[in-house]
Amino acid sequence: MITKILEDLAAALEAKNGENIITLDLRNKGSLSDAFVLVTGNSEVHMKTLIETAEETLDKSGRKCKVEGAESSNWRLLDAGDVVVHVFSHKGREFYRLERLWEE
Predict the structure, then answer these.
(1) How deeply is 78 buried, as exposed, middle or buried, from its count of CB atoms within 10 A (0-12, 13-18, 19+)?
(2) SS3 letters for 60-96?
(3) C or N terminus of the chain, fewer CB within 10 Å?
(4) From CA 29, how far away is CA 93, in angstroms rounded?
(5) What's the pLDDT tens digit per position in 5-59?
(6) Which CATH class is domain 2-29+42-98?
């Protein structure tokens, strides 16, 4: 089930020109969530579009979600419990480097 939603999210975000999309399966990592999706947007408007797209995709899978950092220009988070979508600006992605934290 997680694999399917990650594929659906990646496809939806790619269709909206999300950049550098990475999906991370965290089920065996001791994380509070089963999976992360990381994506970069080109502007605040693009980031908002990516959040809306991810929210629609999660809603179709029966997951309710909550947006954190809706006013942030660097990092917005969509929390659906078992899946968390991180939408970054280029600057925010470089600063937080979440994929490096979870590589190890």
Answers:
(1) buried
(2) HCCCCCEEECCCCCCEEEEECCCEEEEEECHHHHHHH
(3) C
(4) 22
(5) 999 999 999 999 999 999 998 888 777 889 999 999 999 999 999 999 999 999 9
(6) alpha beta
